[in-house]
Amino acid sequence: MKTTVIDIHNVSKIYNPDTIPVHAVNGVHLHIERGEFTALVGPSGSGKTTLLNIIGGLDVPTEGKVVINDTDITALSPNRLIQFRLHNIGFVFQSFNLIPVLTASENVEFIMLLQGAPKAERERRVKELMHAVGLSDKMDVRPAQLSGGQQQRVAVARALASKPQFILADEPTANLDSQSATNLLDMMAQLNREEGMTFIFSTHDARVIERARRVITLVDGRIASDTASVSVA
Amino acid sequence: MLLQLAWRNLWRNPNRSFITMASVWCAVVLAVAMSSLQKGVFDHLISNVVSFYSGYVQVHRTGYQSEQTLENSFPLTDSIQKAVLSSPGVAAATPRLEAFALASTGEKTKGCLVAGIAPDTEERVTRLKSKIVAGAYLQDSAQTILIAEGLAKRLQTGLGDTVILLGQGYYGTTAAGKYAVGGILRFGSPALNDQVVFLPLAAAQHWLDAPGLATTLVVSPEKPTATERIAAQLRASLPPDFETLTWQEMMPDIHEHIQADTASSAIILGVLYLLISFGIFATLLMMLAERQREFGMLVALGMKKRQLAQMVMFESVLITLTGCLFGILASIPLVWWLKEHPIRITGEMAEVYEKFGFEAIFPASLAPSIFWNQALAVLIIGLLLSLYPIAKVLFLKPVDAMRA
């Protein structure tokens, strides 16, 4: 039986409402089920990153509500929202993903430190996750010494560290070469397949779109199409 | 975790951190050197004038301070001495019978301050024996005097010579006495060095026809910092016909000079710290501008703004405290050297100092409070400067910050 993880009700985001209103997201209704591997696509300015930010509680919608596992995150106070993000949502950003002064393993551990996880559990999970993303040999390396693809893998490991309900990835392959992008997508697809982790991407990258099982196309802030892809992640 | 992260963040841009720490270092070294010289000079002055003569607290018959005559002396009873000595914090007390007189040798005559003292207790209170450069210390029953070196020079007298003291005794009697010079004293304070004569209390009482009387009880506290408290206790416990004065009240000119000089130094220190504050603030502003995206990312990931603000505050405090710590470490040998090799003023400037009764010498003080005070001042600056980035962090919107 399918379980809805994210329920988006009539969400709109209007920038400059008092001057020249810009409808970044316009009346979007959407349900994301557990275990989905979904891509939000569309041209620049179509509203995909704004929608991703609203789903992640980083931005507040002008109208509508976002319910994640029965919690209306649009009604949470800023502090509760930060706590909610920490325990429920994993993020992979396009750039500036990692804390430059921490090693790869410390970056992964950081989230668990914020969560207050005990040391033994943190150490065990960091090893597991670094192994899962294929970077067991880069535990003590700082981000500047890692390639772009390796940095994104560490970011995925960090996103998984908090045991989130789902992972939001904003253009995760945008700065990667073809091989690194493929490796990253392979890894995320494997996590999706084997661990049932839900992934939602905002992307224009054809390689991501090809691998997604559901592709939601946004145009001018509205859902223009929502199709299940024939390809298998 | 936050402290560790803050420390590592400091070394992201080592050049910038080093420059900021160097500016703090420089300010702390200057501030410590300045404060220690100032405290050293004042301590030296107080030591010369206060601890070697006036004492920190004096008890007189009421009215003596404004009219210093023998008519304002008091009977030196055991009860008054016991009352003073039993007061908590009092280490010792010694009586004096003081009068102004003319000292004469051959054709030389000079005005002087004659103090009849109890040799044993005087030594405990003012360590007078340590000032003897020739001859021997007084004995209770002796008829010899101790004369200050400057006065002896002016009178062209020396050990074993006779000095005639002429003054006004109790109730206007003529006081005249002939005494042999038993010792020469050297005081740091030019004012004391040019005018003081000591003789045993009994001899002074006889000379002034004031048997059993004293003009002053000089009180030595266990700790000089307890001066005010002890004075207050004595005021409360002694009969109303006695007045108790602290050295600041007896010598308001010196006290005011110290206060005025301390205030002007505080202004200079304030300007110095203001300058380094701008430097540190500029560093914090650059750091804020460079790390907007990172801050946005941290909040997006789930770091509380309070934790982020704490981290920024740690960075600000760590950079100032590290500079301060190295500044203090560097200033210790410098201040020690200045203490061991005090600056001596010579020429006209020295004369100006001596005219005001100060020895023209600038020793430094190694009092730990000087170093702690600087560390505290720098810590406060660090905390105050971190308020701006803290405010920026608390109002940060992660999405806007990540777009920056």
Low-confidence stretches of chain A: none
Question: How many strands, what sense, and barrel or not for the largest sheet of chain B?
Answer: 6 strands, mixed, barrel
| Number of helices in the DSSP assignment of chain A | 7
Tell me about the biggest sheet of chain A?
6 strands, mixed
| Mean pLDDT reading of chain A | 89
CATH architecture of chain A: 3-Layer(aba) Sandwich
> What is the subunit organization of this protein?
heterodimer
Strand content of chain B: 15-25%
Structural class of chain B: alpha+beta
Q: Which class best fits the helix and strand makeup of chain A?
A: alpha/beta
Total count of helical runs of at least 4 residues of chain B: 16
Report the sheet-strand fraction of chain A: 25-35%
Alpha carbon gap, first and last residue of chain B: 26 Å
Succession of helices and strands of chain A: EEEHEEHEHHHEHEHEE
What distance separates the N and C termini of chain A?
20 Å
Order of helices and strands of chain B: HHEEHEEHEEHEEHEHEEHEHHHHEHEHHH
Outline type of chain B: elongated
> How are strands sequenced across the largest beta sheet of chain A?
6-7-8-3-9-10
Query: Number of domains in the coordinates of chain A?
Result: 1
Mean pLDDT of chain B: 87
Number of strands of chain B: 14
Please give a handful of descriptors for the protein shown.
heterodimer; A: 233 residues; alpha/beta; Rossmann fold; six-stranded mixed β-sheet; four-stranded antiparallel β-sheet; 27% strand; globular; B: 404 residues; alpha+beta; 2 domains; six-stranded mixed barrel; two-stranded antiparallel ribbon; 16 helices; elongated
